[in-house]
Design brief:
mainly beta, HSP40/DNAj peptide-binding domain, two-stranded antiparallel sheet, globular, Znf_CHCC, metal-binding, zinc, zinc-finger, Zinc-finger domain-containing protein
Length: 69
């Protein structure tokens, strides 16, 4: 399995990604903004930049130990 370039932890089931959130100057350096929905897996990956969004306390959240062993 290939590790995604970046993992973002969130409290919301719906997230947006423009590929340049952390880049000074914004979306001009990223990709078109897309809205993504986290499902029962507990995460979603952006189809443009492969950034992974993980729901805190969800199935995929390894920070809180919520992920199945």
């Amino acid at each position: 399995m290939i590790t995604p370039p970046e993992t973002v932890y969130t409290d919301s089931h719906r997230v947006s990604c423009d590929g340049a959130t952390d880049i000074r100057g914004g979306a001009a350096l990223g990709h078109p903004r897309v809205w993504l929905e986290i499902d029962e897996k507990g995460f979603v990956e952006c189809g443009y930049c492969d950034r992974r969004f993980v729901l805190r306390g969800g199935e995929a959240d390894s920070e809180t130990g919520a992920a199945a062993a």
